[in-house]
């Protein structure tokens, strides 16, 4: 990439959990001025920063320029980039979190899973440049203020609804200077459907199998057949929604997953830890798009119905609706 990194950039991360602190630390390493909004980890992060372990990129301690309880506390002018990396779950109003820190030229960057998740933000902030990013990484919080980066790290992103701006290129160059690879795409919504073919299938199956890892999901012919059927339905919905995916993609994803070390999806980890799951944006939005486009999706409908049953059971065990601990 020949673009000059935006190394004087001011970046504010909303939701500095695993993803926010990991990519924030890379932007910091590349010289940007990186601040974070923390919720439960405010005290430990403001005292000691984030300790991040990574065999691939090296261990580091990331001390944010400002550690804040709310975006409205951000000082020194508006950020150039506002990175949103909260889980996209019911009850989290992303627009309300974003609004207080937004300056007229602030670019909003979503690093979150799910399909069709941008419209809500684009509609709330129509004059703002919006970058939509997909993370191909395995990173998790292991204790307050502690994050483990296990594997991968690449980001794919572009502007929503389409295109790649100069500021997106400069943001990519900054992240690359921090140590990861970025792929820029003119068609980020198609890239989201591509990732949904994996997440929309493996994530719910991993939960419905009681936190199965990918090795167990693909360990027998029945599991592989279920995965392939669900993937074909995601492909049919994506095509009907105007985002045709390569015909061989399902096979490539299955083989790629089989070759990689067994892995528990982020949704399986949320399920095990009794945290809210991103069912609606990872699977529900694909199901709703299928209904909207008139595509027959019996497998996805079944996975979705089962996920809702599991969510209701967890909610009733936790005592009240939505009370699965954040
Ligand atoms: N982890 C991974 O390997 C991958 C994650 N993703 C996606 O990235 C996104 C982020 O995931 P991840 O980083 O793992 O999630 P985490 O739970 O680790 O981090 C989410 C962060 O958002 C904070 N947050 C949530 N709601 C609020 C709020 N109302 N106000 C302030 N802070 C809030 C949480 O604070 P608190 O500490 O209080 O809960 C936490 O710090 C998700 O969409 C996920 O699917 C995509 C690919 C891989
Ligand atoms: C597969 C992965 C880790 C992306 O790299 C993911 O998105 C998830 O587990 O939800």
From TrEMBL:
One of its GO terms (molecular function) is 2-dehydropantoate 2-reductase activity. It catalyses: (R)-pantoate + NADP(+) = 2-dehydropantoate + NADPH + H(+). It is an enzyme of class 1 (oxidoreductase). Residues 189-311 form the Ketopantoate reductase C-terminal domain. Coiled coil: none annotated. Keywords: NADP, Oxidoreductase, Pantothenate biosynthesis. Residues 11-161 form the Ketopantoate reductase N-terminal domain. Pfam families: ApbA, ApbA_C. It comes from the Bacteria. InterPro entries: 6-PGluconate_DH-like_C_sf, 6PGD_dom2, ApbA, KPA_reductase, KPR-Related, KPR_N, NAD(P)-bd_dom_sf. Pathway: Cofactor biosynthesis; (R)-pantothenate biosynthesis; (R)-pantoate from 3-methyl-2-oxobutanoate: step 2/2. Its EC number is 1.1.1.169. The keyword Oxidoreductase applies. Transmembrane segments: none annotated. Catalyzes the NADPH-dependent reduction of ketopantoate into pantoic acid. Belongs to the ketopantoate reductase family. PANTHER family: 2-DEHYDROPANTOATE 2-REDUCTASE (PTHR21708:SF26), PROBABLE 2-DEHYDROPANTOATE 2-REDUCTASE (PTHR21708). This is 2-dehydropantoate 2-reductase. It comes from Noviherbaspirillum album.
């Amino acid at each position: 990439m020949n673009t000059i990194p935006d190394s004087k950039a001011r970046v504010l991360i909303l939701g500095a959990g695993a993803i926010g602190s990991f990519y924030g630390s890379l932007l910091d390493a590349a010289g940007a001025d990186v601040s974070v909004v923390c919720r439960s980890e405010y005290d430990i992060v403001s005292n000691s920063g984030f300790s991040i372990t990574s065999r691939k990129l090296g261990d580091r301690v990331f001390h944010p320029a400002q550690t804040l309880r709310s975006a409205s506390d951000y000082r020194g002018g508006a950020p150039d980039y506002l990175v949103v990396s909260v889980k996209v779950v019911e009850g989290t109003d992303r627009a309300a979190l974003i609004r207080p820190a937004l300056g007229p030229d602030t670019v909003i960057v979503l690093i979150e899973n799910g399909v069709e998740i941008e419209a809500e933000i684009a509609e709330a902030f129509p004059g703002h440049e919006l970058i939509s990013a997909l993370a191909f990484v395995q990173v998790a919080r292991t204790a307050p203020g502690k994050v483990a980066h296990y594997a991968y790290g690449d980001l794919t992103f572009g502007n929503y609804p389409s295109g790649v701006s100069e500021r997106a290129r400069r943001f990519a160059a900054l992240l690359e200077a921090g140590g990861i690879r970025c792929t820029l795409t003119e068609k980020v919504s198609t890239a989201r459907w591509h990732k949904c073919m994996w997440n929309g299938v493996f994530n719910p199956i991993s939960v419905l199998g009681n936190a199965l890892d990918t090795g167990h999901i693909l360990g027998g012919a029945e599991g592989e057949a279920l995965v392939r059927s669900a993937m074909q339905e995601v492909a049919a919905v994506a095509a009907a929604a105007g985002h045709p995916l390569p015909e061989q993609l399902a096979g490539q994803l299955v083989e790629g997953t089989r070759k990689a070390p067994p892995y528990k999806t982020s949704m399986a980890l949320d399920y095990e830890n009794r945290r809210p799951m991103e069912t609606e944006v990872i699977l529900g939005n694909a199901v709703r798009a299928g209904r909207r486009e008139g595509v027959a999706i019996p497998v996805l409908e079944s996975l979705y119905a089962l996920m809702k049953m599991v969510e209701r059971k967890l909610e009733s065990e936790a005592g009240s609706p939505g009370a699965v601990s954040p």
